[in-house]
Amino acid sequence: MPQMGESIAEGTVSVWLKKVGDRVERDETLMEISTDKVAAEIPSPASGTLVEILVQEGETVEVGTVVAYIETDAAAAAGGEAPAPSAAKNENVPAADGVPAPTAAPPSTVPAPVEEKAAAAAARQDRSAGGVSPPRDGDGNEPESAEERLRRRSTPLVRRIAAEHGVSLDQIRGTGRAGRVTKDDILRFIESGGVAAQPAAERGAATPAGFYEHVEHPEVEVGPEDRAEPMSRMTQLIAEHMVLSRRISAHVHSYFEVDYSRVDQIRAKNASLWAGQDVKVTYTAFIAKAVAQALREHPRINASISGKHVVYRGNINIGVAVALEWGLIVPVVKKADELSLVGLARAIQDLATRARTKRLSPEEVQGGTFTITNPGIFGTVLGFPIINQPQVAIMAVGAVEKRPVVITDGFGNDAIVARKRGFLSLGYDHRLVNGADADQFLARVKENLENFPDPA
Length: 456
Hints:
The protein is α+β, with helices and mostly antiparallel strands.
């Protein structure tokens, strides 16, 4: 299982694209995996034959776990004689040089060198699962070891629970890789009274541990005409994150109607220019530009809550939700306020394309400070989205369509005319963002769109 990002400790095998006995080429897509950050296609590390699959579809394992063995071309040419286990260049993705061709032995037969490598890998993982980094000296001057650094790379959810309960992760014996503290570890610590020794005034009102538990979906009766199938890993994660977000944030929604006449004028005027630059400047690009400018003026919307602190983000990183056939993903445009309109359009287009072809890196779906979702492309007039934790606000874009509008001319005469209009709705966390904050932000976005400067 490859390392898909610094903060990612495990992955789920979504689908094997090859089966046992299939020929694979180096860098040919071998399987698809999903993590809590990204879904990705994983290439084969070598050319050869896939001779054994150890981790089946739907199984979740830690980074570094051996998931399959490939008999390389060199091993096949040598008649299956394997080098010593130490010859493997990468312990995390060992080459299965010692596995004989399927015709030489039953598929279940694995020669001793491979058994030794598998046992060694399992032993390493067993040691990691139970290991705890040694404590520092009292003066705290000793440099951190690699294991200590890895142990501190807990997930954002674990750090958030620790902050809200006033718990230091150093207090907890972690059961994850290299002693890493998992969510179950910290919940057990809290349930066992690990924070009871702290004064209530210091730790604040206690939040029940069950508040952060995994979502338990009630069982329903399956009828004879129904079809039941397991949830994909991505669907499970989305379900869990959305319910947790509802539990964590006090959701409130406001919405404004925007006139896109000015945006349409600019799009019509520059259509041929942008076509020559091979970029499609959509309404989403204009909205992202207007939002980025407004976020700089309203830093509370671009913040996060961390325990009893408010973290005001230094960068404006806008996540743009992309609907996929198998779920939903939110790639992030970093430092969006520093990009031009065309630069934003190009970045959004590139991220969306690579999201649909599973070519995003983990870093490209992390670090968002604000999210835009555009259900309007499917005809939705108005949406009330759920906040993408640990952010405090998310904007939904409604369908842009012609509507009758009352306008007043310079002489005070009213008339009903057709105008391109659409709703923008803002979901925000009332723990930090008040109605006035949200409305002033939305008003600024509306003003930016209705008075957009011509970029030409």
